[in-house]
Amino acid sequence: MERIFRVTLKKEEYLEYLTYYLLHSGRMRGSRWFLLTSVPAVLITGMLLLQYKNVMFITCMLALSVLWVLYGAGGVWKNYIRRKAERYYWPKLNIQEFQEISYRFGPDSVEFKEEGGKVRISYPDFEALVPLKGEFVLYHKKGVILLPYRVFEDEADMKEFLKEYEQRRGAALA
Predict the structure, then answer these.
(1) Strand partners, 111
(2) Under a CB-based contact definition with an 8 Å cutoff, are residues 20 and 132 in contact?
(3) Which of 56, 19, 23, 61 is nearest to 40 (CA)?
(4) Residue 26 contacts by C-beta under 8 Å, 6 or more apart in sequence?
């Protein structure tokens, strides 16, 4: 079965991918570790400097430190990266508009046109399919394909596409 998707990305969809990329790239690993450890370090250092000996107070400070590491830092980090993507990286990309791209998922490969000409990627060249909040990210050896969920008719159509993709990729790798 052959599928053709015509996609014109929206700014929000590209920002979602850019945020995902920044979160998982390791480019800002030092900043992440700083954010993760700063609050517990301040709490524990303050507790030691003020020489509190109350067991309940010490327990509360340690509990706050653990809660920050487990729950607080992750949410703050995601918001920070999203703002960084919007305010710093998006303007640097200088994208004025997105062009429509037509992806043809055939039995052996995926084909689409770029500025350099027609691109054909066989299924074994795909490295991963990552579902995000509003799109699929298909990583391949030459780059990435962003396929928004809105190109599917409904959830059943999306599941059918995933099933076909996995079958074709599995058959190509075998």
Answers:
(1) 104, 120
(2) yes
(3) 61
(4) none
Task: Please compute Rg for the chain using Cα positions.
Answer: 22
∠ CA 24-128-174, nearest 5°, is 155
Q: Which two tokens stand for residue 111?
A: 């084909």
Residue type, 69: V
Q: Please tell me the distance from the alpha carbon of residue 141 to that of residue 146, in angstroms, as a whole number.
A: 14
pLDDT tens column, 25-76: 887 888 889 988 999 999 888 888 888 778 888 898 899 999 999 999 999 9
Beta strands (DSSP E) in the chain are: 3-7, 101-105, 109-114, 117-122, 126-131, 135-140, 143-148
pTM above 0.85, yes or no: no
